[in-house]
Design a protein that fits this description.
Blueprint: H1 15-23, H2 30-54, H3 60-90, H4 104-109, H5 119-131, H6 149-173, H7 177-200, H8 203-228, H9 240-243, E1 245-248, H10 251-255, H11 262-267, H12 276-282, H13 284-289, E2 293-296, H14 300-308, H15 312-318, H16 330-339
Parallel strand pairs: 1-2
Length: about 350
């Protein structure tokens, strides 16, 4: 099924949608307002575990309710929230006169979805995009053998335990102390509140609602970023067409605002999410000239999993033949991919 293009607005929007359209910069982002409501409902369900754990839910009943909450959280809103946060970090959702509403997604809802306040914006916008997966990028994949699970584990544990320190030093060295304060402050405030909730209210609810999501989301983000930048041309590591991949025609794109179009996202980071499929169709020849890697029917997490188990043939069969790129057999595709998975020394 094709990925979604620009959304069609209802000729007779509901009163709720008419009100929302007056608040946002781009009417194509109306779905974000709808999603914010769903995420608020999810957050309230999480918060309800606190009074229930202290009154009604005891022992196994609590863990049954916690499991039900996490299923709702994971299957209903998690993936879409993360990509809404991504899109609204690049393109401001609410108009300037309603600017305070722009803090709701990262500061109010973010902690319920594994995102400590400010750190995503600082890492993604302040560091990752300017560095473009090159060696100064703290989440660069280049130094690793990118089809080895052991290498990914090293990559993940470094991020999980050291990123807040490395990120703050990165900003200080570049004279961006304000960004360093934001990143460190957001992390410290989050974990301070989590500790207080665990000690003085209920540790079980705190574990489920705030602590576990951080672990899960950081695993997913590092698996996703690994796959997005797994195939790097050592001769042209700065070229987004050769250091990123694109995934088309996937359920993930239909749920998550065309996030699979990662190549062009690094070419033009402010491109609206609904324009990516059209851009790709119009410029396939450009992708072919750069010998870009594009997969059909896969998403980043599937690409990561297939790399970890060495399923190169499955990856090769999913590769899109691009105009202007060399025609390759399945075996030649596998060898081509392997050349882009090798470590690139700094």
């Amino acid at each position: 099924m094709p990925d979604p293009g620009p959304p069609t607005l209802n000729e007779r929007p509901s009163p709720w949608d008419r009100a929302a359209l007056k608040l946002i910069n781009d009417p194509r982002d109306l779905s974000f307002v709808h999603l914010m409501v769903a995420c608020i409902v999810t957050a309230l369900l999480g918060l309800s575990l606190y009074p229930l754990s202290l009154t009604v839910l005891q022992g196994d009943w609590f863990w049954a309710a916690a499991g039900a909450y996490l299923l709702i959280w994971a299957l209903w809103t998690l993936d879409r929230f993360i990509l809404m946060l991504h899109c609204t970090s690049h393109r401001i959702l609410f108009r300037r006169q309603y600017g305070w509403l722009n803090h709701v997604i990262p500061l109010v809802l973010g902690p319920f979805f594994g995102e400590t306040p400010q750190t995503y914006f600082c890492h993604h916008m302040g560091m990752h995009h300017p560095e473009n997966n090159l060696h100064d990028d703290l989440s660069s994949t280049m130094r690793f053998q990118r089809d080895r699970f052991g290498h990914w584990l090293r990559y993940f544990f470094r991020f999980f335990f050291l990123i807040i320190f490395e990120l703050s030093l990165y900003f200080v060295r570049r004279g961006q102390a304000k960004m360093a304060y934001k990143a460190v402050g957001g992390e410290l405030v989050f974990w301070t509140v989590v500790t207080l909730l665990a000690v003085f209210v209920d540790w079980r609810a705190t574990l489920v609602v705030f602590a576990f999501p951080v672990l899960m989301v950081r695993v997913l983000m590092m698996a996703g970023n690994w796959a997005q930048h797994a195939f790097v041309d050592a001769a042209h590591p700065e070229d987004p067409y050769r250091n990123s991949i694109t995934c088309i025609d996937s359920r993930y794109n239909r749920r998550c605002f065309n996030d699979g179009y990662h190549i062009y996202h690094h070419v033009k980071a402010r491109c609206h999410w609904s324009d990516y499929p059209g851009e790709f169709q119009d410029n396939k020849a450009v992708y072919g000239e750069h010998d870009a890697i594009v997969f059909r029917g896969l998403d980043f997490f599937l690409v990561w999993a297939l790399l970890m188990v060495g399923a190169y043939r499955t990856l090769a069969k999913a590769m899109v033949e691009l105009p202007g790129a060399p025609a390759r057999s399945i075996e030649e595709r596998i060898e081509f991919m392997r050349t882009r998975l090798r470590p690139i020394p700094g």
